Structures are given as structure tokens and as C-alpha cells.
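Annex B, item 7. Sequence and C-alpha cells for protein A, then protein B.
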Amino acid sequence: MARHRAPRDTVRLLRTPTGSYVRAVPKENLIGQTIAGYTLRNEVGEGGTSAVFRAEHKTHGEVAVKVLREKLRQDKTAVARFVREAHYGERVVHPNVVRTIEVGEAGPGLHFLAIEWAKGELLERYVKQHAPLPADEVATIITQIADAVQAAHAVGIVHRDLKPDNVMYDPATRQVKLLDFGIATDTDMAPEQRLTRAGFFVGTLMYVAPEALSGELVTPAADQYSLATIAYLLLSGCLPFTAKTPREMFSQLLSQPPTPLNSAKPGLKFSAAVEHVVMRGLSKDPRQRYPDSVAFAKELDTALKQGEIADSGGLLSRMKSIFRR
């Protein structure tokens, strides 16, 4: 009788840039599984350290569940950062911050974080489609982000990664929800407790404050710089630096002033007061910025309103009235 060999598992190889091949690790499929009572329905986002799922729970209803990636479950630093994010989220309680529901370990290394399901879309996506935004909408968004950040600062936490991709926005209600304390830091943290080595910065280069590039522990003023960058983007549809590579961006952040707001986009002009507020928030020296993020947001709101009043009898207002007919 002929002997039959058991079929071997199909092995998928990936070609590296050097021409060699490595075995591809299949992506863990958690959709449909239930973790600590949360049934994962579909994946809605992913990053280098975790995946985010829309999930359902008998008590909490629809929620978002973040799960640490399988390849990092034995990485002590990755686990510590994931757990720290969860506990920071528990400490920051505010209407404009996604609410932390539960943090736990459903199995060996299967760390998860359940948070409220925020309606709307990522502000990053909304901005790409609609910027420049109307002055009143910009003021509403920036004020809510500032309030959320101030709540974090009040309990000694600096977010360090403020950017449109970490903000949920519901255009229908203009409600803002701040996400992701994954690389936040405690201002009272001892040097030996830090998860980022001195000399290495964390954050997103396009939004990071210049003083953060040294890798030293930053102050709440760094979040204000990031908030001012977001305001610049919402108002103009552009970023304050025009670098095309990370190396060039790094150099510009350290050595060059940001592009003035009124030079960001041809034909787009703002009042001197609006430009002053945004550019002060983008000062390279943290001491030259506003006392806190809320003060920045209030000054911007006032300047934007004054700009609208000053223009009330001008061409822009007449054009708006035509389009409203």
C-alpha cells in the first residue's frame, strides 16, 4: 500500500531589500473572538504596537478595544507602555477625552484596553477633505482639544503626540474626542522610570515641539506647540514647515522659523491678530508661548471672532450672502 505524506503547511516568504528572503509571520486574526466579554466585530485601525477593533459588550454596548500585537507580547517595554497608556487614560477624565472602560490581560500576554466608542471620523481624514475650515469651526475644534489637553496637564500628564490622527471629530455635532496616550509622559516621573532613552524623541515629527527633539522630558508647553500646528493646518490646509524628508524636517524645526500663516497659501489671508496668536504658539522657545493651551485657544477664538467682525462689511461677507441664497 502506498504511503501518503501529510501535506506541509504553506510557507510564505517575503523578499527583503537586500535580496534575501524571510518567512512571513501570518497576521493574528482576532475578528469574531471574544476577549474578556468583548466580542471583536471588525478592525478599525492599526499601528506598530496594537490593533483597534469595534466591539460589543453586554453591559457597555458598542466600544473600541485596543489589543497589543502578538509579536510584542513578550516585549517588556511594549507591555509597560501599553499598560501605562491605559492608566493615563483612567486618570484623565473629561468630556473631550475618550473614556477608559477597562484595562486587563485576557490571556497570557493578551493585553487589552477597552474605551468608549467615539462617533465621527479621525480629524486627519476630515481635514484632508475640507480644509481650510471656517473660522468658527476651527475655534470650536481647537477649544475642545485645548480643554482635553488641559485636563491631562492638571493631573501631571503631557500627551506628547497631539495630531489630527489622534483626534476623533463628529462634524454633525462638532464634538471632539482626544485619543491615544500611548507615548504620554508623567511630569513627575523619575528618570529611571522613563521608557524613552535620553537623546531619542517620540512623537510625530510634523507636530512635535522643537525642544522635544533632544529626547528630554518635555513640559505642557510642548503640547501647546502641537496644538498651534493643528490650528495652522485647520486654518490653511498647510503645515508650518515644508520639508520633504524627515532629515530636512528635523533641521528646519531646529534652525528655521515656521512659515508665517499669511504666507501658507496664496490668496488666503488672516487678520494680524490671528496670525500673531498662531505664530506665538509656534515659538521655538517654550517661554515665549502662552501660559497654557487654554490661554492659546481663548486668544485664537477672540482673534478669529474679531476678524469676522472686521470683515462683516467686506467682499468676503457679500460673497457668503450670495452663496447662501
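Protein B:
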Amino acid sequence: MAQYSRNLVLLGDSAVGKTSLVRRYVVDTYDDEYISTIGKKVTKKEVVIGSEDDPTSVTLMIWDILGQKGYKYTQSVSFMHAHGALLVADMTRKDTLESLRSYWIPLILKVTGPIPIIFMGNKADLEKEAQFSFGDLEKLADSCEGFGAKLPSYLTSAKTGDNVEDVFVNIAGQIIERKASLKLNIPWQLMDKNEVGSLQDVVDHIVADFSDQLGGIENATPFIKHQLEMSELDLSKPNEQAIIQFIERLAKVEQTFRPQELVDENKAARLRLFQYKKT
């Protein structure tokens, strides 16, 4: 049996159900407790595709990415090695569908290029609360340019499990069939004053810069998550005082493995970002 390992990313706004979808697929359980993912969480699941006579085993490394808009650098660092993507909207929130169009689709194209993609309208079990239809989801998928293939759409429910397994099997097959090449040459402009317009941008650059210097988001996430919590820094509504505490705490982390001169240099560069913000 042929065996492959491929990276799959789930993208979409916060609270659309990405974490619950992964939990439903990997362990067949549902939990409606909202979890805001910092950086990315990785879950592994083996999928067998193809015929009985010629099966193929695909180990999916499923990445659950921070869904808060405005953190494009942190998100880009998180999914730059993705082979395929599931774009998730919440059927009860029409704004999450528009976010796929205006934010997530342009970002995935910029970072990875035209990899296999499937659109998911999640929380389909809440029919009476739906704010858009399956036709709206299909219309968005049909309007996407630059992917080189028709993009499929599904209505899913992490609560009931409807279509969840079908989506993951479908994307696994597409990834193997397409043999998508990874686009890795991202024009980074980290810590650039022209890229900083808000306090969210300040946090975005700090997190991405720390992750980059630590060798990737996987290594950095445990430190970042803990220091965010200790600083009481809300990613959706960051304030300057909490960000300064966050910077101070990251500097203390770096003191354990970096020369003091570099620690001071990093701290100064991160504090300097406040001078660039416009709003």
C-alpha cells in the first residue's frame, strides 16, 4: 500500500466550529465549548483512499489555525506548508461567509498558491438560524479564480457528524491526485513600519517575529499562549498596556536561551512598533 503524509489546514473566522470539526472527525466526539486557538494545533489522522485492489494510505496532519482576522503574519507562518485547505463558514453568521471571500481566500492564495480547497458550511443542524444557503456557499466556490479547478462545497455539522468524514476523505484524495507543489517564497515584511496600522498589527508582528526566531510556530506556540494568558492580552481587543506586559514576558522567556544583547534588541524592536501604529 502506498503511504503519504500531507498537511491540511482549517481556515475561517473564530468560533465557526473548526476545532469541533477536527474533534468530531478524529475521535468522533463533539464539544460545543468555544476554544480560541493560538498559533496552530496539529492533529494526526490516517485516511485510506482508492479501491480495495489499490488502496492508498494518507496521514493527514490537520492544522487548526488562529481564526481572529487581522493576524495575517501569524496565520501565514502557521500554514505556509499546507498541501490542502478546508475553508469553514458558520451557517448562522453570514459575515463568516464574506470573510472567506475577502480575507481567507486571498491569504491562502498568497501564501500557498492554488492548493486543493473545499468549502464547508458548518452548523448545518441549526436550520432555523441559518443566515445563508448552500447555494450561497456554492456561488462563492464557483467565483474563486486562480485555483485551476472547480472547488467543492459541503454542508456539515460537527454536532451530528453530517458530511464531516466525507469532506476529509475528499480533500485527502484531491491532495494525492493533484500532487500540489508547495509555494514557500513568501515576501515577508515583518517589523516593517508600513505594515503596522493597528494594535492588532503590533501583536501580529510580535508573535510572528518571536515564532520565526524560535524556528517556527510549533516551537513558539506554548510560550506565546502562556504569556498571552499571563498578560491578559485579548487578541480580539488588544490594549497597549497588555501588549507591553506581553513584550516584557517574552523578553524574560528569551533570557533563558539568548544573549542579553539580543534579548534587549528584540524587546526594543517590538516596543518600537507602537510608534508605527496609525489607529
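Comment on protein B: The beta strands are 2-11, 40-50, 55-65, 84-90, 117-122, 153-155.
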